[in-house]
Amino acid sequence: MRFIGITGGVGAGKSKILGFIKSHYKCEVYLADEAAHLVKLPGTACYRELVELLGTDILAADGQIDRAAMAERIFRDPGLLQQVNDIVHPAVRTFLLQRYEEAKGKEDVELFFVEAALLIECGYGPLVDEMWYVHADEAVRRARLADARGYSEDRISRIMGQQLSEEAFRRDSDFVIDNSGSFEETCRQIEKKLEAFTWQE
């Protein structure tokens, strides 16, 4: 079984590509953002550490961590961001590696995918068999973010400015998917790359 990391800048189309892969190959797909939500649920060690660090003001009425309240708490004290990351990132990594070990015991899983914009920065390179970079031209990404999410140009520029450069993404990746054109063209690139694995209609 291949352990594949998928990364890329905002608006590159990572989620759509993973949707295609999930529907056509024997695989499991995990999004780091979703894993980060799961590891922060009440009862987890991550939950307890975050509440101890940030206080009960970050909790919603149902006892779960309120993402907006947590973001506001960090905004008021930026020094907390690294401490929060030091709690959440290792918990996410442990969660994903546990899912990977479980998947290796399943006969119907040939590929294991993890997606995150920060895979390279968070040190997943040595953990995966391959790192895939989803590329799309900046103009294409900007148009997608404006149309699909309603982001302003300022917000798009701010987010892009916080992410790795094109050169850095390519340097630390084993395979590049160009998602600048039609989605059919993108799918053909994936099919060629994964031709050794089981295709399912």
Describe the protein's architecture and organization.
With 201 residues, the protein is of the alpha/beta class. It folds into two domains: 1-26 and 110-201, Rossmann fold (3-Layer(aba) Sandwich), CATH 3.40.50.300; 32-109, P-loop containing nucleotide triphosphate hydrolases (Rossmann fold). It has nine helices and five strands. A five-stranded parallel beta sheet has the order 2-3-1-4-5, sandwiched between helices. Helix 3 (45-54) packs antiparallel against helix 5.
Q: Could you give the topology of this structure?
A:
Elements: E1 2-7, H1 14-24, E2 27-31, H2 32-38, H3 45-54, H4 67-76, H5 80-104, E3 111-115, E4 130-135, H6 138-149, H7 153-161, H8 166-171, E5 175-178, H9 183-193
Parallel strand pairs: 1-3, 1-4, 2-3, 4-5
Total count of helical runs of at least 4 residues: 9
Instruction: Predict the CATH topology of the largest domain.
Output: Rossmann fold
Number of domains: 2
The name of the CATH architecture of the largest domain is 3-Layer(aba) Sandwich
Major pleated sheet: 5 strands, parallel
Query: Pairing-aware structural class of the strands and helices?
Result: alpha/beta
**Segments where pLDDT lies below 50 for 5+ residues?**
none
